[in-house]
Write a structure and sequence with these properties.
Number of domains: 2
Number of helices: 9
CATH architecture of the largest domain: 4-Layer Sandwich
CATH superfamily of the largest domain: Ribonuclease Z/Hydroxyacylglutathione hydrolase-like
Order of helices and strands: EEEHEHHEEEEEEEEHEHHEHHH
CATH class of the largest domain: Alpha Beta
Shape: globular
CATH topology of the largest domain: Metallo-beta-lactamase, Chain A
Bound molecules: zinc ion
Oligomer: single chain
Helix content: 25-40%
Length: about 260
Amino acid sequence: MRIVPVPCLADNFAYLLICEETGQAGVVDPAEAEPVLHCVAQEGVTLSAILNTHHHWDHVGGNKALLARQPKLKVYGHASDRGRIEGQTELLEAGAHFSVGKLAVRALHNPGHTSGAVSYVVQDAVFTGDTMFAAGCGRLLEGTPENMYHSLCKVIGSLPPETRVFFGHEYTEKNLRFAAQVEPDNADVQDKLAAVRALRAQGQFTTPSTLAAEWKTNPFMRTDSKSIQQTVRQSDPGNDLTPIAVLGAIRRMKDQF
Ligand SMILES: [Zn+2]
């Protein structure tokens, strides 16, 4: 297996998921077609599938042009996104399995950012779209804090800590600045922020992260942190500090950050 990030638009990541044994590839979230086709040619692989994590235009925007060139591409998305994903051919439910070349892929259902959000698990990698970012999570556009808590901490969070997390946007630096504000005594956040600033200064991307790093630095997965709870109490004195209430409070703070 080889995974090649394909930067798209201003800050999106599509990813080419390559089965090295067969030369077949799938593309996760083609925001636009051109950079994806360029990468497919450069890698010398055959594109056989589109794996969409959710229906937003900046994740499916390249579907139409890719299908115009290759009408037989399989297009994967959650069953409930039927009619919202251009060219969708495969209607996935939680736990569905399929393959790209000989790579076995498993779909997780992660409602929160959208109702039909899915993540794709392949070997030691997970593609999380706009559900889990490095040090962040997507806005709750079609879901509740409870949905997002469950998706991040119980569903994606059930994967092994060494799992590599391939996320949908290069938001890491801003996310870590927010993380440092809500949990000022977290040294792991400070260390990662310094490392990420150095990477970005060199024009490098921060994908992938790992689940282990997210448990240490992602405030939306750290609702039991006393420091985060103290921050929440200051802005929302009536908050009962359950994990779901804390996640909801810091998500509202992040919306204004
Ligand atoms: Zn989105």
